[in-house]
Design a protein that fits this description.
Number of strands: 8
Distance between the termini: 65 Å
Strand content: 5-15%
Shape: elongated
Length: 256
């Protein structure tokens, strides 16, 4: 099929510049500034990614209303699709987590920055987190989520409602991202700075990461996921390099 079921346009998308072509490795044989943009649902309907996000209903095709979900042997629901975009073709990609997240963000757009923050924690992207931190002056004081809806969210202490209420600290520990763990302990805990390695403090100073007054704020180490597990509890379960962290009580929210 060569057209999107929703808009009846070709299953391609224009990119903005030659820089995008280099970033996405667009073949020279492709039309200039045009890349594939196709999502094939299990029912056989095709959509642009943006058109699918605009029209979809969870587990149902927005065009033919066919149930497009199935279950793994372990009983986990999934929507396996074939996706082709600037990065190439992926077959059997489970889109359900992405669709659930987009559905959530439609209802709670003020949390979009928070969810980006969690991705940065998982990726170990210190620079992106600090860029988010440095943008706080535009929003007044603390690092907050989007405030257009009238709400204000502490990004550093955000707990993922779609991911068992994990904090960025939980996510960084699970992903093995030491740099992010140190950064979050500096910015969102009361851990004595004498517990930080000198090179970590020096790097934080160079990057402009400064601990603010923690009075009245929750220590990120005390926040629990949906099972009642703190970041320290997760580190104990994982063991390995986190064993030293637990033994030295860096992740323990209770002073000793």
């Amino acid at each position: 099929m060569s057209q999107c079921t929703a808009c009846n346009q070709p299953l391609t998308v224009e990119i903005d510049s030659e820089d995008d072509e280099e970033e996405y490795n667009v073949p020279e044989s492709s039309s200039r500034n045009v890349v594939p943009d196709s999502v094939e649902l299990p029912c056989g309907c095709f959509f642009h990614w943006a058109c699918l996000l605009e029209a979809y209903e969870l587990t149902q095709c927005p065009k033919c209303s066919t149930n497009i979900s199935n279950f793994t042997p372990a009983g986990v629901e999934q929507i396996l699709c074939n996706v082709e975009n600037e990065g190439g073709r992926q077959e059997g990609l489970d889109l359900l987590p992405y669709l659930k997240e987009e559905s959530y963000l439609k209802a709670f757009p003020e949390e979009r920055k928070c969810r980006a923050f969690l991705e940065f924690c998982a990726d170990g992207d210190v620079g992106a987190i600090l860029d988010m931190l440095n943008s706080r002056d535009e929003e007044g004081g603390e690092i907050k989520g989007d405030v257009s809806s009238g709400s204000s969210i502490d990004v550093l202490r955000y707990q993922d409602p779609l991911g068992n209420l994990n904090t960025g600290l939980h996510i960084a520990i699970n992903a093995g991202k030491d740099d992010i763990v140190w950064l979050l302990l500096l910015l969102a805990s009361s851990l004595d700075t004498q517990s930080f390695p000198p090179d970590v403090l020096q790097a934080a100073h160079t990057l402009g990461a400064v601990r603010e007054d923690q009075t009245g704020k929750a220590d990120i180490r005390a926040l629990e996921d949906s099972t009642g597990r703190t970041a320290e509890g997760l580190a104990k379960e994982l063991g390995g390099k986190w064993t030293t962290w637990v033994e030295e009580r860096r992740l323990c929210p209770v002073p000793y």
